[in-house]
Amino acid sequence: MGLFDRFKKKTPPEPAAEDVAIPELPALATIVELDADGLGTLRFDDDSTLRFGASACRGFAPIEGARVRVCAAAPRPYGGVRATEIEVADGAQAELDALYEARDRSLGFDPGADGTASAMMLGTVTVMFERPVENGRAALREAFERMGVLAEDVQLDHTPSPVLSIDGRSLQVFVGAGPLESDALDLRHLGGDAPTHGGFLSLSTGLASIDAAAPLILGAGPDPWGPNGAMRKLSKVVARLAAHGTHVVLHRAGHVVYTAEEWQRRAGDPDDETCRPFTAWIDVGFTPDRTRLATWGLDVAMRPDIVVAVEDPESDAAYRLAHDAMMLAAYRMTRDNRLPEAGDVLHVPPGLGVGPFPVEGGAAALVPDASCARFVARDEDTGAVFHLEAIGEPLDEVWERFVEEGGDPLGYVAYRTLLTAQLESVWRPVASLGRYDLPQPVPPFEVTVYDRGDDYAFVTCGLARVRQAGGSVEGDTAHVELLLPVSQHGPQLAAAFADFAMFLHGKGPDVPPWCPNDVVHFEDPIGPSRCFVLAYAGGVPLAEDATVTLLVPTPLEEDELEALRSAPNRGDWVSAHGARADVRARWVPS
User: Fold this and answer.
1) 180-to-162, 212, 218 alpha-carbon distances in Å
2) Does residue 207 surpass a pLDDT of 70?
3) Taking residues 408-433, what's their average pLDDT?
4) Under 8 Å CB-to-CB from 312, ≥6 apart: which residues?
């Protein structure tokens, strides 16, 4: 026997559980007693009673008078029976909210208090609505449910003020039954006009961090924009509110106001994991001394704002270049989950467009080329500030040198800027479909639809960026894009045309280059046929002596193929065949 064994108490035998007469479960009941420790009594409709603890309540806090459904009960360790699973009875949520509000009022809290002052001082984002937003537990719950906000990972709680719990992260909710009127609102994007609205909902993530870099000091840290990131989830909630609202106010970005439609455009689709909607949370402008351009509002994601020095603040070209660099730096920080550091280099292609989705062209879009401007980050008191070190060469000169001498092609963004500038000078773009990060040897490309007045034209953009193996400039076979004139357009037709382009440019280096009047055979139909002839449609001059050839894939039937083979002048036959309205109509789905 050990020294302390003699002091051990024997465990008393567990008494038999008492027989408690309760209805068959599940059964409806009312909470009739509740003490400060969360222990209480349930009374069933047959007047029988049952004890319970607060931990048995699922999705609500117990309160006297609440109508509930008792789903399960179990014996207590030392006798008796206790409820183990309780939920709100069907149709009883409004009554429960009224009980909570009565208790809150008795404690001196006004559930209908206006949140205007709190929204302006503590709010992170505010969504304005055309009609007044009614305060109170039941009304607020109904509003969030109607707008699709509440979900498995988004719950409405009260402490006693309203709180949205997003996957464990609490956001204070401020409600305004009238307009959010404040001279502090930044109305630049509304032309200076105050937004007309009847009420608002404001969400607060808490006070801004003093050091926005803190989460990343010891490593990459959590990714706020990742699939389960806090900013992605917050963006989803705001997107659902904005779908019913009129305007969105970003308080961390200087109380800047956007229309709800503009905020949604900037946010893209937060439900899409490829989308990182940082662009929906920022504003852009000069620093007070007008020597630098900066983002405002990234501290909402616990990240520093990006600052870029502007070479000439009065120059539109210098502004655009600094703006592209600033947005690219923010994009990289968001995508890489890494803070900018001194020595970081940005290669900024001309015409770069940064948004919530991956840049058009995928990885190829950001490959440096001679047309890129070069920015380098320097360590300054305000953090890493990007400064211009070199301006890229003119696009047409880089393209002409590539066509004449070979070497590395233009980056996708630079080539796209060059080609679309020519096409958009005569046609109006209306839609596009991208095919990026493709297996070799197919280069990234997109299909753009242009309105030509009397009809439409599908044009590929990106294929000619890479020279056809064996092609020649003299034979119009070095740099080839595809064109398809049609009477109407749609996504199904664009996808079929893109598939054709992929197959055409997926040939190996040993296959001769595609030339005007060549016949293309496929094992399975692509679009309208298995057989096509490539009709010559002219060229697009991207530089003085560097033209991109346009070929039209024209469907052929068996008898037409025989006629083509026997035609005395193949080019004339192809031109006449491709001009026929019935042949052009074959591409359009019936």
Assistant:
1) 19, 28, 40
2) no
3) 91
4) 318
